[in-house]
Fold:
Amino acid sequence: MAFITKHYLNESTVLGVWKIEEDIQTLLDMVEMDNEDRRKYRVFKSTSRKLEFLSVRALLAELLGKDSRIVYNKNNKPFLRDGSRFISITHSHKLTAIICSTDEKVGIDLEYMNANINSIAFKFLNRREKVSNDPDHRKYHLYIHWCAKESLYKICDKEGINFRNNITIHPFELKESGEITGEVRTRKINESFELNYTRYDNYAIVWTKKNYENIEISGEEQSCFTARPRQNT
Structure:
């Protein structure tokens, strides 16, 4: 089994990471899919997409138990069917990660780092953001910015957020792992966030969490989160 880590960030929030080393049949034997899962699974043509789909469900079972089920809204945002937790999911190359919480909104992103990000940095960096010019560190620094912005986009769950114009990651000293701050500014959002980042092999991983009472929640999301969450994870 390629389960890497299950890390409790606090009493209500847990983060898990799965490294995909299994073949499709092995993962199929590890998960229990309902009719909706099977319907979605049959649509996928590529092996990589099937492995991603199955690894998410294998990881969710490790974190919350085999009865946990993911459903999606019209924008393909994931929720837990029982509404017990907020959840955010990410996958890239051979890694899958999930963060979920009973009383905090969450956002997570991981990316396999390649050399191409430097050529598109102008699309997501703004003038307030500072990135190292040292070639040994620049790629990781850029990927942290990208993953951080993806995480903030997910936690805010609002259409029309532009990575370059609406999200700013405050300048920080680059380390292997650390904490950073960022802000989202639009006509409807004026929020600051704390984020954590780390590197695993050639992956950058960034996550954020914030008490949901301090963030505006869409009506659709409220309908998926109907009761005060349980405190045990």
Summary: The longest helix spans residues 135-156. The radius of gyration is 18 Å. Confidence is low (pLDDT under 50) at residues 217-233.
